[in-house]
Amino acid sequence: MKSGIAALAPRGAAFAVLRGAWLALLTTVALSTAGCAALQEATAATAPADPQPAAAPTPTAAPEATPEAFLLVTPPETGPQSLALGVVIDIVAPAPLKELLQRHLDLVRLGRISPEDVEDSEWARLIDAAPKQVRELLQTEGYFAPKVNIERTAGRADGQPDRVRLEVEPGARARVGRVTLEVEGALERGHAGGEEHARATLDAWRGSWPLNSGREFRNPAWNDAKAGALARLRAAGYATATWVGTGAEVDPLNNTVRIFLVADSGPLFRYGQLEIEGLLVQDTVTVVNLVGASRGSPVTESLVLDYQDRLQKSGLFENVSVTLDPDPERADNARLQVRLREAPLQVYTVGVGISANTGPRASVEHTWRRVFGQAASSRNKVEWGKKRQFWEGEISSHPGERLYRNLIGGTISNEEFAADSVLSQRVRVGRTQDTQRIERLYFVEAERSRRTTAAGDRTNALALSLNYHGVWRDLDSVVLPTQGFTFAGQVGAGRSRGTNASAGNFTRAYARLTGYLPLGRTWYAQGRLEAGQVFLGNDVVVPDSLKFRAGGDESVRGYGYASLGPLVNGVVGSGNAMYTASFELARPILATMPSLWGAAFIDAGNAADSFSALKPAVGLGVGVRWRSPVGPLRLDWAWGRETRQGRIHFSVGIAF
After folding, report:
1. N or C: which end of the chain has fewer CB atoms below 10 A?
2. Which CATH superfamily includes the segment(s) 271-342?
3. What is the β-pairing status of strands 334-342 and 317-324?
4. What pLDDT digit, counting tens, does each position of 13-57 carry?
């Protein structure tokens, strides 16, 4: 065996000599080619000013390549020095750009392929093309003067993979210079003619352009801005708006980008007629009234969406679809296509539940969507619970002009509190209007109440009043709000009489303001102010349900439902004045579960016979929120400062 090895040694040395000479020859030829010249130009920033020619490798030094040598073509190797060693690609660039290059650069993408499938000639071509492709990719991010340096170091002769090093200095990102936004078509003519809709649309369109002068320029932002601008024109009633031309001109000397865009608005679509499918029992006039707009009104995106929302909320239909016929020939008499599926005429609903305010309960509700074949709906509900039992019923007409409905309704309820109970009956006749942001209710009401204390004392009161209730909303979402406000207000005036009291006049006022505000990206604040008062003479009483109590889920947490009020002979009753306040701070508990929030809060408030006698009770605690599709589900634990006890509260939905 030893003699065999000794005999092979001279042959191995001879092979090393031949291999070294072959590498030297290839190096000389490769450096003289045009491809190598392009590579040297890309690497000129880091190459010496006057490079000395590399010494030809001797047979004994052949395995060690000099640092300046770039082997663009590597001869076939055998044994452990095979193509399987591959190529290692190092990218030196800022993190966002490095990710961009790793994702899109052909040199990197080819490097993921099995090295045996890639020839060195292909590697050489990609290395030559890499600087240009890098610049093209960086231009999409707003870098128009980057410095690119690329090196390839041979390593296979040493049993190591070849290495390609790509260094990128992006420089400063270009900024937007001059911006020109022009429009042609009906919008331009309407604006020149002083039309209010055209003037407001064009001013808002130009004012909402996001890439203003001085902003950093990126190709994704440029594309998003163009798409958003065109969508806003179409949403404003110009449904066939298109771009006539768009451009972004780069000034490399000033590193700025001039933007110009010209849009053709096309015609303004105006509401003219409805095409209705799916009506079986309900009246066509009801569907027409729910449009909520007069003929000739611009068919904006909000008009279509609001109309669809009103159809859904009317309770008459299960499925609703509203679309605009985009035929420009019919723009002055545009057609809305309405596809409907009617809801069942009668529905019975049985429910059970539990509330921290009123305890366990069961209910039955009946809805009739066309009472005796007339354009009217009725609703009757009976609920029986541990602390509250009631019946309420209402008959209302289907929406008429300006979305108004006439109604007549009644309620009988019995509520059990800690030290008394209140039985009340009321009948009301009125008129209501429901829009996307505002709800109005005008009504005349007769109400009677009987209060019984734990000691057996009874007082009765009867009142007749004229009332107005309103709700105003400006929210990002009615179901799950995070920004905006709601305001609920009530005013009423009437005359009442009661046990051991004189007949007299009274007025009542109530207001509730709730605000939502995001704080940064993950924190959300919510605040509430609530106040009410009944104004009446010293010897005048009103039904107990017109007065106020505090405490409970939507009032002051940490205290029982309606357990805060003036004390009369040691018994909590209802007061003529009330105010409460609340502040809550919440955020998602886990990034992986954005619908599950944790919250901390503080509430304060009370009810009394006058504001001067009112001493607020304070409750503070923590809770969990699940933002479900039907509204937030809240589970809270609150500590009552006055009672020095903790209490669990549970509720679903938003109170307006």
Report:
1. N
2. membrane protein fhac (3.10.20.310)
3. antiparallel
4. 433 433 444 434 333 333 333 333 333 333 333 333 343 333 333
Does this model's pTM top 0.85? My answer is no
State the maximum Cα–Cα separation within the chain, in Å, rounded to a whole number. 133
Q: Rounded to an integer, what is the distance from CA 381 to the centroid of its chain? A: 35
The third-level CATH classification (topology) of the domain covering 175-264 is Ubiquitin-like (UB roll) (3.10.20)
Task: Quote the tokens at residue 503.
Answer: 């007949």
Amino acid (1-letter code) at residue 300: T
CA–CA separation, 485 and 228 (whole Å): 27
Angle 590-595-596 from CA coordinates, rounded to 5°: 55
The pLDDT tens digits of the residues spanning 125-146 come to: 878 888 898 988 988 899 988 8
Q: Residue 629, SS3?
A: coil
Query: 108: exposed, middle or buried (C-beta count within 10 Å: 0-12, 13-18, 19+)?
Result: middle
What's the one-letter identity of residue 105? Answer: L
Amino acid at position 560, single letter: G
Residue 279 reports pLDDT greater than 80: yes
- Domain limits, the chain: 2-169, 175-264, 271-342, 415-652
Assess contact for 614 and 623: CB atoms under 8 A: no
Q: Answer positive or negative: Cα dihedral of 472, 476, 478, 484.
A: negative
Is-contact 263 230, C-beta < 8 A?
yes
Between CA 651 and CA 632 the distance in angstroms is 8
The answer to whether domain 271-342 and domain 415-652 are alike in fold is no
Cβ-defined contacts of 433-436 (< 8 Å, 24+): 433/402, 433/403, 433/404, 433/405, 434/310, 434/313, 434/403, 434/405, 435/292, 435/403, 436/306, 436/309, 436/310
Are β-strands 162-169 and 147-153 bridged in parallel, bridged antiparallel, or unpaired?
Answer: antiparallel
Nearest residue to 496 (alpha-carbon basis) of 487, 483, 505: 505
Q: With respect to CATH, is domain 415-652 assigned 2.60.40.3080?
A: no
SS3 616: coil
Q: Per-residue pLDDT tens for 349-367?
A: 998 877 777 778 899 999 9
Q: Give residue 284's region: left, alpha or beta (phi > 0; psi -120 to 50).
A: alpha
d(CA 223, CA 245): 13
Taking the C-alpha atoms of residue 431 and residue 429, their distance in angstroms, rounded to an integer, is 7
Residue 539's Cβ-count burial label (10 Å; 0-12, 13-18, 19+) is exposed
**Tokens matching residue 5:** 């090895």
pLDDT of residue 563: 93
Q: Kindly report the CA angle at 647 between 645 and 648, in degrees rounded to 5?
A: 165
Residue 307 is given by DSSP the state H
User: Among 47-61, 120-134, 156-170, 499-513, which stretch is predicted with the lowest mean pLDDT?
Assistant: 47-61
Summarize pLDDT for 233-270 with one digit per residue, the tens.
999 999 999 999 999 999 988 999 999 999 999 999 99
Mean pLDDT throughout 647-653? 83
